[in-house]
Design goal:
- By secondary structure, the protein is mainly alpha-helical.
- It has a domain of 69 residues.
- Helix content is 60%, strand content 0%.
- Helix 3 packs across helix 4.
- The chain is elongated and about 70 Å long.
Length: 143
């Protein structure tokens, strides 16, 4: 009887089945031995890395610094830039634009990552952000 093993690569394939990433396997010596016999890797807990904690810490620092800083700037500028009679409509349009942008990023991320790998995907997002920053510098009036 063959046991399912992790095969390295973009997709996660097993000998008899195709599971989704994160599928649980029995962590017994027989399964690990079967994986090693076919030159495959069996991860017991997670992907091996010494720097996983650093990603969590940096993500936390990003959230802590973004929320009171740049995260609120569009909403503050939005409340000051429109005349009073158009402020509610402008705020609604800004909120819908924000959520539509979030949807576009969420829906395009996987296909972009498959086409450009992760580094290329974030380079595209950084380029779009840079274009937005330049546009804001030249087009948004000082309030």
């Amino acid at each position: 009887m063959k046991f399912p093993c992790y095969q390295t690569g973009i997709d996660i394939y097993f000998l008899h089945y195709q599971f989704h990433p994160g599928a649980c396997l029995d962590s017994s010596k027989v399964v690990r031995g079967e994986c090693r016999a076919e030159n495959r890797v069996f991860f017991e807990k997670c992907c091996p890395s010494k720097f996983g904690f650093l990603a969590v810490i940096l993500l936390g620092l990003y959230i802590i610094s973004y929320s009171p800083g740049m995260g609120t700037v569009p909403w503050i500028v939005n409340s000051e830039i429109y005349p009073l009679r158009y402020r509610s409509v402008g705020g609604g349009i800004a909120a819908v634009s924000n959520w539509c942008s979030n949807l576009i990023v969420s829906e395009s991320y996987i296909s972009l990552t498959e086409a450009l790998v992760a580094g290329g995907t974030f380079l595209v997002f950084a380029g779009i952000s840079t274009i937005g920053l330049v546009s804001i510098y030249f087009l948004v009036p000082e309030t």
